[in-house]
Amino acid sequence: MHPSGHVYGMVEDWPSNLDNLPLLPYDVIVGSSHPHQGKRPLPIAINAGSRNDTLWTEACRMRRLGLDADEIYGALKVVNRKRCQPPMDDNELRDIADRAAQYQPDADLFPTTETGDA
Length: 118
Fold this sequence. Notes:
Elements (H helix, E strand, L loop, with lengths): L25 H4 L16 E2 L3 H14 L4 H15 E2 L4 H12 L17
Parallel strand pairs: 1-2
Helix pairs in contact: 2-3, 2-4, 3-4
């Protein structure tokens, strides 16, 4: 046994409060595409005429992956800040996230392999 007292030599130090954890990068959240759609990259700059449709599409993609309204909203805030020109109002982002979260996520979040196992 390691001197730390842990079998693998790692000390388990869990945070007491998760509120101050950094946000997961948006690209990590939506990095994998929905299996039934071709990959469509998120534009680097999202102009005023396409902001709503683009963010709605991204919100729906995140919902298919199983994210809830708060998670979708958090990711949309990052995309809005970094890519939308000009940025959308925060209330609009919340509305998009809430509407997307009303849909059911994909049932097949963990598709089986060719042999039928996970």
